[in-house]
């Protein structure tokens, strides 16, 4: 699989019930496939990293970004979605 | 989860932290546009062509910049334009006042939504043509009556020597510009850079112009990240200086990769060739986004203390080494910027008496540009301003490097006063200037010959 269609979603904030459910609901609605999830609590902060496949996404990148941001606001967490290339470029040659 | 993630969660969080906490950003994507084909025998017609060409080629620059910033989650702070030195574009008109061209640039910049357009420029290191004189003549009025236009002049090179007539003239022009913009603290002078060995592909303002050797249209990227370097250094208080250089190189590498990625993407989306990444630590007044604080984190009580030049030499070189490895094409200024007004640590260093103009000048011998965004008393004689420029140009000429001066003789201000420019340009404490007169030197005029390049001891 190429990196072109992959994006990374990071969710940072105070832990509470329903964060994962909330975010994945947005993704399911947009037909975005979750490839992998990592979740930890770092110094009381809920940290979730998801790698997703946007190939079949029904939303444009910026629309998905907007919806995730909105959902993050509801949940009191910060949600970021970035194309995976960013991390590849920064950490690998 | 190494199977799908080709990077670790720690690496991902590091990137997020650099962007969200440490102010890592793409400082500017700058579109270079050649205006050579806009030059005509009529200034009005030239203005029309200049406006049309810029608004055509840069129509999508801002939108594409915003799109790419959103896709990669990395802020692109400024979108800007650099054009062919206007002295060359206006020359065939035979006019002696190029202010209308500055206004055309200003209108074009406003129309496409960029905050600065650079290239109201002349290259006069060996002497003047008629167009160069017209541009010099127009500088004060052009800078005072436009908002977005940035001007620069190249007065010296290592190969040609120094044009002292141009430098002497600039002393007067800078004072005139300050007085025309006195109500804004002499703001016009913040948009005028005097270079030695000016790079032709620098994306950073106010000194950006589209050099004669550049293609028709090009995208150059300027990245920044003093905050990321500062945070990295603070993590290793026990590191020796060799280890510290490696830490800085690693960070500079990562920062530059972002510029490379964004530059390639923006140029692909606009269908314009990608020029260079300029890896410069460009400070802002944001908390922790300071080159002076990096020097202090290396081990100085205050920037300006003895040892500052050594620390800056280490920093500047490590930044270049890390950056050069990260991009196929590194260019522009690439190094550490030390503008006074745009760096809270520099401002504090001046206010606390730790940093003098003389020490600032010494620092410029080992960093990427020069005496940048500093204010001096408004009553400083034109010859002293010219001599400040001459000293700085001499450092660049002899050491085969770019140096520049952006000085604001703040009208009505005395040492210790503060001048507020607002926005990106920040605020500058007025620095004390040596008042012994260099007037006789400056009035001699002529050129300082190009230096010997061999026997370099």
TrEMBL record, chain A:
It comes from the Bacteria. InterPro entries: ACT-like_dom_sf, ACT_dom, UPF0237/GcvR_regulator, UPF0237_ACT. Residues 8-82 form the ACT domain. CDD domains: ACT_1ZPV. HAMAP family: UPF0237. Belongs to the UPF0237 family. This is UPF0237 protein MOTE_06160. It comes from Neomoorella thermoacetica.
TrEMBL record, chain B:
CDD domains: RNR_PFL_like_DUF711. It holds the Pfam family DUF711. SUPFAM superfamilies: PFL-like glycyl radical enzymes (SSF51998). Homodimer. HAMAP family: UPF0210. Belongs to the UPF0210 family. This is UPF0210 protein MOTE_06170. It comes from Neomoorella thermoacetica (Clostridium thermoaceticum).
């Amino acid at each position: 699989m190429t990196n072109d269609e992959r994006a990374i979603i990071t969710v940072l904030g105070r832990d509470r019930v329903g964060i994962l459910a909330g975010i994945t609901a947005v993704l399911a609605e947009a037909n975005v496939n979750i490839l992998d999830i990592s979740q930890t609590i770092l110094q009381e902060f809920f940290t979730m990293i998801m790698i997703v496949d946007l190939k079949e996404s029904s939303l444009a990148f910026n629309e998905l970004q907007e919806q995730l941001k909105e959902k993050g606001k509801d949940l009191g967490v910060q949600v970021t979605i970035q194309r995976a290339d960013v991390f590849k470029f920064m950490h690998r040659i | 989860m190494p199977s799908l993630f080709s990077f670790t969660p720690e690496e991902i969080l590091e990137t997020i932290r650099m962007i969200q906490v440490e102010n890592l950003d793409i400082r500017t994507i700058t579109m270079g546009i050649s205006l050579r084909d806009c030059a005509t025998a009529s200034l009005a017609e030239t203005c029309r062509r200049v406006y049309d060409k810029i608004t055509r080629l840069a129509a999508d620059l801002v939108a594409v910049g915003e799109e790419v910033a959103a896709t990669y989650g990395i802020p692109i702070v400024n979108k800007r334009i650099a054009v062919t030195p206007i002295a060359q574009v206006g020359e065939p008109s035979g006019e002696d006042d190029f202010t209308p061209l500055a206004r055309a640039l200003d209108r074009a910049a406003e129309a496409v939504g960029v905050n600065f357009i650079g290239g109201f420029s002349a290259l006069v290191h060996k002497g003047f043509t008629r167009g160069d004189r017209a541009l010099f003549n127009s500088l004060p009025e052009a800078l005072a009556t436009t908002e977005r236009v940035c001007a620069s002049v190249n007065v010296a090179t290592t190969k040609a020597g120094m044009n002292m007539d141009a430098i002497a003239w600039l002393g007067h022009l800078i004072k005139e510009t300050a007085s025309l913009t006195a109500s804004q603290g002499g703001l016009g002078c913040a948009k005028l850079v005097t270079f030695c060995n000016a790079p032709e592909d620098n994306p950073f303002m106010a000194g950006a112009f589209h050099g004669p050797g550049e293609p028709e249209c090009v995208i150059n990227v300027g990245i920044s990240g003093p905050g990321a370097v500062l945070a990295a250094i603070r993590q290793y208080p026990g590191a020796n200086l060799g280890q510290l250089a490696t830490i800085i190189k690693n960070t500079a590498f990562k920062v530059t990769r972002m510029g490379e990625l964004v530059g390639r993407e923006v140029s692909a989306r606009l269908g314009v060739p990608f020029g260079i990444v300029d890896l410069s630590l460009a400070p802002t007044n944001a908390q922790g986004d300071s080159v002076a604080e990096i020097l202090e984190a290396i081990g100085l009580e205050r920037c300006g203390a003895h040892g500052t030049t050594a620390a800056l030499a280490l920093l500047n070189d490590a930044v270049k080494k890390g950056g050069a490895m990260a991009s196929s094409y590194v260019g522009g200024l690439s190094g550490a910027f030390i503008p006074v007004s745009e760096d809270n640590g520099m401002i504090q260093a001046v206010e606390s008496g730790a940093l003098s103009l003389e020490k600032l000048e010494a620092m410029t011998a080992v960093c990427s540009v020069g005496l940048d965004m500093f204010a001096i008393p408004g009553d400083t004689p034109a010859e002293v301003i010219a001599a400040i420029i001459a000293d700085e140009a001499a450092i660049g000429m002899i050491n085969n490097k770019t140096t520049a001066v952006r000085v604001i003789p703040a009208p009505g201000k005395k040492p210790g006063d503060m001048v507020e420019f607002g926005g990106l340009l920040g605020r500058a404490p007025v620095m004390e200037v040596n008042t012994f007169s260099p007037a006789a030197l400056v009035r001699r005029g002529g050129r300082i010959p190009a230096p010997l390049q061999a026997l370099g001891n």
